[in-house]
Amino acid sequence: MRRLGVVAGVLVCVLLAAPLMAQQRFAWPQGKQVAVSLSFDDARASQVTRGLDVLARHKAKVTFYVNPRSMERQLESWKRAAKEGHEIGNHSLTHPCSGNLAFARNRALEEFTAARFGEDVDEGKRLIESMLGVKATTFAYPCGSKFVGRGVNTQSTVPLVAQRYLAGRGFRDEAANDPTFVDLAQVLGVDSDGMSFEQMKAAVDRARANNGWLVLAGHEIGEPGNQTTQAAALEELLRYAVDPANGVWLETVERVARYVQERGGRK
């Protein structure tokens, strides 16, 4: 009798836990199994001179995180990107990073204050709207860095971004995002530069296994090279992602972030 009571107790616990377990499964639109956002930083010329045609062939929308001054030489092409429905996000005005990187020594985050960083971010957003007529609603941390200052005076820039933007994307992170847990001010971004299609698909599959949101972050679009998302691999990934049979919701960072927020994602 005692054994039967223990078994019955276990069954009751399982039955009570079942609804909770079911609630943990996040519901992506139209029964999709995984969300994928493609993003590209710095307003590199190849993103519009080569990337837009690749994206158009598959009717895919991505997020471009731009530095306004870098858009000037291809401004008409960037206007095309906005017109075709791609998200234009902010990547700051001057792209400040750690001064340990030689190119950033004259705009080193170690020498910034939170106020100066906020001004840099705000001016970038203002110029994006002035040049393209769109308001940036998400932000990508330059170099993926989320600090200003040094030592005991170091401050996080995450609160500043959280006050201004729906989402802030990191860089060179190691995993997809859990839509039931993600801090939208610190969305994980996985480096897509140099990835083969097989590697990209493997990342999508890992995200799918956890019902996650994979955000890929790249730079150039073209032939294999430094900081380049290979055009051929991107083309294969797009072909795979837009096939309804594969259960992928391919959308911009802004649209996925808003979907997560509206469905009770943690803030």
Name given to the CATH homologous superfamily: Glycoside hydrolase/deacetylase
Count of DSSP-assigned helices:
9
Q: What gyration radius follows from the Cα positions, in whole Å?
A: 21 Å
How would the global form be characterised?
Answer: globular
Number of strands: 12
How far is the N terminus from the C terminus?
A: 49 Å
Architecture (CATH level 2) name? Alpha-Beta Barrel
Number of domains: 1
Mean pLDDT over the residues: 92
CATH structural fold name: TIM Barrel
The helix/strand class is alpha/beta
Low-confidence stretches: 6-23
Relative helix content = 40-55%
Strand content: 15-25%
Q: How do the SSEs run, as a string of H and E? A: HEHEHHEHEEEHEEHEEEHEH
Largest sheet: 6 strands, parallel
Task: Describe what this molecule looks like in 3D.
The chain has one domain: TIM Barrel. Helices cover 40% and strands 16% of the residues. It contains nine helices and twelve strands. Strands 1, 2, 3, 8, 9 and 12 form a six-stranded parallel β-sheet that branches. Strand 1, helix 2 and strand 2 form a beta-alpha-beta unit. Helix 2 packs parallel to helix 8 and helix 7 packs parallel to helix 8. About 7% of the residues have low confidence.
Provide a brief overview of the structure.
It is built from nine helices and twelve strands. The chain has 267 residues and is an alpha/beta fold. The protein has a single domain, classed as Glycoside hydrolase/deacetylase (TIM Barrel, Alpha-Beta Barrel), CATH 3.20.20.
